[in-house]
Design brief:
With 316 residues, the protein is of the alpha/beta class. It has helices at residues 7-14, 29-34, 37-41, 59-71, 86-90, 101-114, 133-145, 165-168, 176-185, 200-206, 217-221, 229-234, 243-260, 269-272, 285-291, 295-298, 305-310, and strands at 22-28, 50-55, 76-81, 118-127, 150-158, 190-194, 212-214. Helix 4 (59-71) packs parallel to helix 6 and helix 6 packs parallel to helix 7. The active site is at residue 83.
Length: 316
């Protein structure tokens, strides 16, 4: 979710669902150890529960980065072993780490020794032409022995050469049965499934076999799908905010951010771009997106543009 689940996106999503876990973009250890820590780790308390997703392959660096995440108040530290991009591969982390389970186990142990919060691993079912269930099972088994008890399984292979990250999310076939079997063989582990899941009905089906479900692209492109999650999965029957209610509560946040970070060049579209899918499926959704993508409209810097765009939509 690099360039997607930044703090503006997470703030927006939290006004749709209070209890669903949110994950940061993948933050590299180098960015934390040699860059602007506050810029990468600062978040609003409303975002809890929130996990920091790390990218790296050096146990000592990951331990230091995990400690920083815990100090900043994150509820979980997640190690990414699933991203297939060439940029990530050049840093020797992401999905290519599936070929080095012993190294990943060392990384997990170092991180667990450094923090008290949960350390979790997100991974694919295989890499390149290696896609046997046994390969994934052995990877998970070795890392579980190092103390990791939660695995997020993106149920596709990662093709490290020849496919773009977008193609890696679409072309390799989904093999949900791998995650189901993993849960059967490791009943004490928490197994969370990811990949191509779009509806609550699909989530319900997966929850018959595994412990949790992660949504990526669907949560971003159709965020209001999460509006029923609090009641459906967390037992919270508080009234569901309408789409317009969500936009209304975002307006003061947007204004505050624009005031605080104008010197950094923050513009209205840096925040509104995350909201373009809010009206998906409704009459007028296209007009809503167009208005929030119009450079002349956005140049005004007026947060009220959100509700003005919503007037073009017939809701309910």
């Amino acid at each position: 979710m690099m360039d997607w689940t930044d703090r503006h996106c997470r703030q927006f999503h939290r006004h749709i669902t209070k209890h669903t876990w949110l994950y940061t973009e993948m933050v590299t250890t180098g960015a934390l150890l040699h860059g602007d820590v506050a810029r990468h780790l600062d978040f609003d308390g409303i975002e809890h529960p929130i996990a920091l997703q790390l990218g790296g392959s050096e146990p000592a660096d990951l331990a230091k980065s995990a400690k920083l995440g815990a100090q900043w108040g994150y509820d979980e530290i997640n190690l990414n072993c699933g991203c297939p991009s060439e940029r990530v591969q050049r840093g020797a982390f992401g999905a290519c780490l599936m070929a080095e389970p012993t190294l990943v186990a060392d990384c997990v142990k170092a991180m667990r020794d450094a923090v008290d919060v949960d350390v979790t691993v997100k991974h694919r079912i295989g890499i390149n032409d290696v896609d046997s269930y046994e390969f994934m099972r052995d990877f998970v088994g070795e890392i579980a022995a190092a103390g990791c008890s939660t695995f997020i399984v993106h149920a596709r292979n990662a093709i490290l050469k020849g496919l773009s990250p977008k193609e890696n999310r679409e072309i390799p076939p989904l093999k949900y049965d791998y995650a189901y079997r993993l849960k059967r063989e490791f009943p004490d582990l928490e197994i969370i499934i990811n990949g191509g899941i779009k509806t609550s009905a699909e989530i319900d089906l997966h929850l018959q076999h595994v412990d949790g479900v992660m949504l990526g692209r669907e949560a971003y492109h159709n965020p209001y799908v999460m509006a029923e999650f609090d009641a459906r999965y967390y037992g919270d029957n508080a009234p569901i905010k309408s789409r317009r209610d969500v936009l209304a509560v975002m307006i003061p946040y947007v204004q505050t951010q624009l005031d605080l970070y104008a010197e950094r060049g923050l513009k209205l579209n840096s925040i509104t771009r995350h909201m373009l899918g809010l009206m998906t499926g409704l009459a007028g959704a296209r007009s809503f997106r167009q208005m929030l993508s119009d450079s002349k409209q956005l140049a005004s810097g007026r947060p009220e543009l959100l509700l003005e765009a919503a007037e073009r939509v017939r809701e309910g």
